[in-house]
Amino acid sequence: MEHLVNTHEIVLTSPLDMHIHFREGAMLRVVAPLSAEAFAGGVIMPNLTPPVDGLDRLLQYRTEIDEAIAGAIFAPYMTLFFRAYDEVELRAARPHIIGVKLYPAGVTTNSEAGVQRIRDAEPTLAIMEELGIPLLVHGETSGFVLDREREFLSIYARLAQRFPRLTIVMEHITTRDAVALLDEYPNLYATITLHHLQLTLDDVAGGLLQPHLFCKPIAKRPEDRDALLRAALAPHPRVMFGSDSAPHPVSAKEAAGCAAGVFTAPVALPLLAEMFEQHDALDRLQTFVSDNARRIYGVTPPEKKVLLWREPWQVPARYGDVTPYYAGRTVAWQLAQRQSRAGP
Amino acid sequence: MEHLVNTHEIVLTSPLDMHIHFREGAMLRVVAPLSAEAFAGGVIMPNLTPPVDGLDRLLQYRTEIDEAIAGAIFAPYMTLFFRAYDEVELRAARPHIIGVKLYPAGVTTNSEAGVQRIRDAEPTLAIMEELGIPLLVHGETSGFVLDREREFLSIYARLAQRFPRLTIVMEHITTRDAVALLDEYPNLYATITLHHLQLTLDDVAGGLLQPHLFCKPIAKRPEDRDALLRAALAPHPRVMFGSDSAPHPVSAKEAAGCAAGVFTAPVALPLLAEMFEQHDALDRLQTFVSDNARRIYGVTPPEKKVLLWREPWQVPARYGDVTPYYAGRTVAWQLAQRQSRAGP
Questions:
Q1: Which domains does chain A have, with CATH numbers?
Q2: Nearest Cβ partner of B256 from A144, A212, A260?
Q3: How many CB atoms lie within 10 A of CB B339?
Q4: Integer Cα distance of B252 and B247 in angstroms
Q5: What is the value of ipTM here, to two decimals?
Q6: How many helices (H) and strands (E) does chain B have?
Q7: What is the phi-psi region of residue A312: left when phi exceeds 0, alpha when psi lies from -120 to 50, beta otherwise?
Q8: How far apart are CA B24 and CA A183, in angstroms?
Q9: Is B244 a catalytic residue?
Q10: Looking at the complex, does the CB of residue B115 fall below 8 Å from at least one CB of chain A?
């Protein structure tokens, strides 16, 4: 392959999805292969029920994932669910994890076991800083839905100051203010999802209400989306792609109370290619979906070339009982593998 | 009844719901009797398919309503769907209508036939002003979902200035800014719904997404809700209760694209009583749900005493195939009639 980017195809080298919900059991077996097909690795979220908050549980979950993606070239970067860990636990876990994910209690799916007061987290954070274990954070308060991330920014700032050698990843940022905060503290990083690069609250609730576009944090204002897009397209050296792909069965979405989560794993790379092309930035996609993450986390993913073809692809209506993002719509790009393996 | 308000019961004299969606056919026959049971009259919205934009169609719709509520003491105050009407049409319609309802094109359910440019409406508005026919307005632009009402306020201001003798009702206002605008122009009035007195966007999208709380205009911020509540409890002399009760079958709500509308007709008075009591304002409920509307519109509704008892009532899960607001929850007050007529 002499030209990695031309008008008909692109080759991504070891693309990474730095924020994925794989779930367990039957759902895991539906969704994990789709990520493993498109990506060379990804950060696996630990907010199961019960949470993945011990090494035994983590290794057991890892085994379940390995079985689900058997044969694929894909590194599952495991995370522990934040609780008060001691140094012995974290030293033992360190070879098996890429970081520890902190959820404030009750702010999103399966976060009931999360942290009640950030201050109580500090002893564990000090150990993580010492051991070089990154902190991944769902940064929302329990305030008014549109203010939750912005209200959390002062907590990010305090943590970044208090633990200057701790790598702190602001997960799935959704606001202009969060993007701006990146430039305030050198140890702050961020993941950005596909859907937050495309959606505003208008898409979720401006016409008919769209349960399949409902997620946490909720999509914000146009100026927020635009700031995220600028950061991703540049790309800002401290942002990485993390889909926050979060499958729920249709019965949990089209319901009187609709669960939060957008399932983007199988459509993420085609849609990112389309978007970066529209902004004349295809040559920067590799940095956003892989290079930045390698540098930030210091990981070396398995070698994997992922070919995307510029040929219209209609997104399937369902994967198992999950409605994907862009269901039934047509994307200008597709994973080359799809030529022989159509949607289920 | 010597005391119209005591700790166990209240008697409302001819309560009015100044903004209702009765629909047609089978849905009309389910929902209209519920309004007719609780209220002495109400303003019936004309956004059917096709819209009620001629006298023949209006009289036919009125007949259908009369049949659905046969025997009830209830005055359906009819409205025409705004289009370019001439003076002959409006003079003929005047005895049969309480006002003309203007929808900007495409901003809500069945508004496709609405006004493209407000300026084009001015000749008709001049005739309405001359004939003393009130203008009712769905005041939203097609902008970002949270800004639509605020963006429309300058249009209200312009209309109020340009047609100083025209009664202009800002329907279902949802923002602090709209409340403030009332005090700028003496010919501006407003209806306020029950649900906008109770909900913010947090209730709709802050936890699980709640399709049955999704409406247009969408519920806004806490400070907006609080301003509406102050205006209703006072009550501001130019606000009236208008439920905007808007039934949809469950299949249109718990769906991939959820229709906008909250069905509050059968629960409105019990919940208003509970809310006014909580704010020590039960003695002002009569003004909010009846007296202001009579004065503003100059109507004399049929004489009807509606008794509410302070006795817990569990709201039914369904009325026909419609999930009501507060479904399955308990309200401290109930319509006395419910003693003998339980929920369907």
A1: 14-305 (3.20.20.140)
A2: A212
A3: 12
A4: 10
A5: 0.93
A6: 13, 13
A7: beta
A8: 58
A9: yes
A10: no
